[in-house]
Amino acid sequence: MICPKCGSEMADGSAFCTKCGASLAAGAQQGMPQGNPNPQGMPQGNPNPQGMPYGNPNPQMNNGMPQQQYYDPKDHTAEFDAKDISDNKVMAMLPYLMGTIGIIIALLASRESAYTYFHVRQALKITVTTLLVGIITAILCWTVIVPIAGGVCAVILFVVRIICFFQVCSGKAKEPAIVSSFGFLK
Asked: Is the pTM of the predicted complex or chain greater than 0.70?
């Protein structure tokens, strides 16, 4: 006997296919099958009864278990008022664009904004780290590896500054990726 679903050869008189679990006999559907009709754990029936093309139809459930929400401890966007974010977004961009001068301008221009102050602190962390990398590189410039490592670190900090700028553009308040893990900049 050959399974009409997967084409596997079965013993004559088998009620179910041992490969895919498909019913081989019309009479076997009325009674209970002998043994495990699905030995490999293959899904039976329509695996997508709602007709959803892909993905989990219920994002709150994952295989019958409640799905946990991801919490990013470095994302502080929810701590700020939406009006504060929209009103002071440009001032929050200045510290990342202009460095030390941008930090001073942002502090003077919007003293009342907690959102701008948050980004001033983050840009100040990046600026301090950049200065420390520059000082270490200048002191140890006689070695070969330290100036190369200092240059790589400076490029990485520049990329972190750009990422922070685009996060401000989207109205986020996240701590910088690398700089936030330094304990001396808290």
From this structure: no
